Amino acid sequence: MILGGFAVAFTMVTILIKEQTYISEVVFGTVFGILMGPYVANVFDPRAWGGDRVTLEIMRIVLVVGLFAIGVELPRSFMLDHLRGLLVLVVPTMAFGWLVVAGFIVLLFPNLNFTSALAISACLTPTDPVISAAIIGGKFARKHVPQNVQRMLAAESAANDGLAYPFLSIAIYLTVESSRRVAIGKWFLVGWLYQVIVGTTLGAVIGRAFCLLMRISQRRGYIDRESYIAQYFALVLFTTGVASSLGVDDLLAAFAAGNAISWDGHFNEQVENEGFASVVDLLLNCGCFIYIGTWMPFNSFNTPELGITPWRLVVLFVAVMLLRRIPSVLLLYKWVPEIRGWKEAMLCGHFGPMGVGAVFVSTLALSRLPTPHFPPENQQEVLAANLQALVSFVVLGSVIIHGLSIPSFSLIGTIRSRSVKLISPTSTSSQSTSPDWLSFARRAPASVPHTTTVGGEDMESGSGQEEKESGVAK
């Protein structure tokens, strides 16, 4: 209740500031949570509320609502139409980042073996759908980020969040099981066939059945337009409850349910222009990141007896930001039809924030590990002692860097525009009036001429214009 009250008051202020500065609400929420947490004002301490179980369930609810919302808001049959690009972006990119980050963890923290490093890296593998929606779905990004990139990032963040389970489960099974054969067998049967395949199928069946039921109810006059929003959230909780009870991947189930509902576009038409869902989603996001700010274990960021020191954490964060996604996306983007050049690939590689999903997966991992002694007595306890310190530091850095990316690019674009006007005041009539921090992503390739309007006449630019000018000179 206290957290909800803070979230409501904070949301009102955040919306006003966000409209002017383009700074994501996740940054404000996290900073506000830190100020209210046990290390500053000590207004409330979530770690005193009952351990990691509360954190796990709060992150779960926020994630499933966000994933369901992404599934519903995607265009009809989007996942099928863009399956090739999504598979290329999700599976090899996640696997590459998982292995590379694990390698850096082993180098920086020698007390962790490679299997434990894989478990920690699995927590940092998924792209956070909540931060992605807050950044890519903002007003400035909606105006300047190409729509194909927005949708691909949203769909990818939702899909790879649920697929973090198999990456985590293989590392956990290898850590806790005595035999590698048993660990790999459980990973394949439980981690993939049951949790992922059954979870996705369950969500799709529930979502499709719900859609048909709503159609029948509407035709017979049993339900009105306003009731669709109520059923929207009821279905999220129902799908999550069923999936969790069966032990399958509830995140993928929620995303699949949202996709199944919007598959034919009927549900989207009924809830179009309804702002209630967006308001609730914003409220949950603000409350969640206030919680994350208060949850941050700052006292664990300098624990030399475990090999955790600030400089090691900073180096790890830089390695994660540079190597987790960008190299893989740059290598593979030619197989993704929705990405039209290396600059859009850089954008997709950069916007891979870590937040709610990383906190959720790391807390889930801790629930499967023993409570560590100090000093730890075995590798399982070493992993449990190091896990949240490493993950939470990277999450904190990601929230700040990714949350400030849009306003930073906006500021750079404004400075560049003003510099051009100062240097070439006579050519300002041919300059675009819109901010250009991502104009490269909206331009056609250099080999394809395009037109701009100058003085009421259409003139070719790019290579075609250069050829014309050279011809005239001749």
Structural account:
This protein folds into two domains: 2-403, Na+/H+ antiporter like fold; 444-474, no CATH class. The protein has a two-stranded antiparallel ribbon with strand order 1-2. 71% of the residues lie in helices and 2% in strands. By secondary structure, the protein is mostly helical. The protein has helices spanning 2-21, 25-36, 52-73, 78-81, 83-108, 114-124, 129-136, 139-144, 147-162, 164-176, 180-219, 225-246, 250-261, 266-271, 276-295, 310-323, 326-332, 342-350, 356-366, 379-403, 405-423, 439-442, 463-473, and strands spanning 450-454, 457-461.
Oligomer: single chain
Tell me the major beta sheet.
2 strands, antiparallel
> Any idea of the CATH class of the largest domain?
Mainly Alpha
Quickly give the CATH architecture of the largest domain. Up-down Bundle
Structural class of the secondary structure composition? mainly alpha
Which spans of ≥5 residues are poorly predicted at pLDDT below 50?
A: 426-474
Number of helices: 23
Distance between the termini: 77 Å
Give the overall form: globular
Output the strand order for the largest sheet.
1-2
The succession of helices and strands, N to C, reads HHHHHHHHHHHHHHHHHHHHHHEEH
Write the CATH fold name of the largest domain. Na+/H+ antiporter like fold
